[in-house]
Design brief:
two-stranded antiparallel sheet
Length: about 200
């Protein structure tokens, strides 16, 4: 019982047709459902923003989606409105086997701070509670899949590695946005941190 599968943000808004669609984001769902059978613990993360979230370009007049801005906690990509609490876009993809989850962790609900990582908000200090949950259960090995490889999967994997977990990212069951080379940079950074890219 020391390993867990972490399925990151497999939500409608990140799949084709969604507000912040990752190319082929829906194609990984069957493989992820099948992989769940190999793990004693399955955890789902869910982006869960209030309307008017500070990471939305619409909250910053005169800006466009995908521009960079400075927040009190550092640089931040401004995103299209996505995964708004209670919306269809925030729901998990219909085909995802959510019944298999031991825990659904919602992140990004603080209106002032975005949260890419499953472990910390983007100020890099405010915990989500996932680390404590995993410690309590004695889980030391994590396999990560989902969306998007270069943002939420990447940040989650790096934080997990820094916290001492043995981390594997299944590249075949993750998809990236790839903003200006962000996918290659993320994969290089994960490898340098000791994350296994399988």
């Amino acid at each position: 019982m020391t390993s867990a599968l972490i399925v990151i943000d497999l939500q409608n808004d990140f799949c084709p047709g969604g507000a912040l669609a990752v190319p082929e984001g829906d194609r990984i769902v069957p493989g992820i459902n099948a992989l769940m059978a190999e793990f004693p613990s399955v955890i789902l993360t869910q982006d869960w923003h209030p309307s008017g979230h500070s990471s939305f370009a619409s909250s910053h007049p005169g800006t466009s989606a995908y521009e960079m801005t400075q927040m009190p906690y550092g640089p931040q990509v401004l995103w299209p409105d996505h995964c708004v609490q209670g919306s269809h876009g925030a729901e998990f993809h219909d085909a995802l086997n959510t019944a298999r989850a031991d825990l659904i962790l919602r992140k990004g609900f603080n209106p002032a701070i975005d949260s890419y990582s499953a472990f910390f908000e983007n100020d890099r200090t405010t915990p989500t509670g996932l680390h404590g949950y995993l410690q309590t259960r004695g889980i030391t090995e994590l396999t990560m899949v989902g969306l998007a490889t270069d943002f939420c999967v990447n940040y989650s994997a790096l934080d997990a590695a820094h916290l001492g977990y043995r981390v594997t990212v299944r590249r075949d069951l993750a998809r990236g946005i790839d903003l200006d080379g962000s996918l290659a940079a993320a994969e290089a950074g994960m490898a340098a941190a000791g994350v296994i890219l399988a």
